Amino acid sequence: MGNAPPMKDSVLLTIKLSRSMAEELQAAFRVAGNMEGYGSINDLLVEATRQEMRRLQRGYNNGHPWKTSPSGL
């Protein structure tokens, strides 16, 4: 699960979480992150996002990656 390959072309995004969700995320990472192979909370969030994107692709885009605009974000 964890140990995702380094991202060659990465973009910094900012997300807003409720305080309780952020605290629970930190606790989950502190307790299980290392055992699951996550080196950072960022690694955990990237993998969770990757899994959700795959789920959405399967459900709504015939399993294909989403088309992106040339301008990016």
TrEMBL record:
Pfam families: CB_ParB_C. Gene3D superfamilies: 6.10.180.30. Residues 25-66 form the ParB-like C-terminal domain. It comes from Arthrobacter alpinus. This is ParB-like C-terminal domain-containing protein.
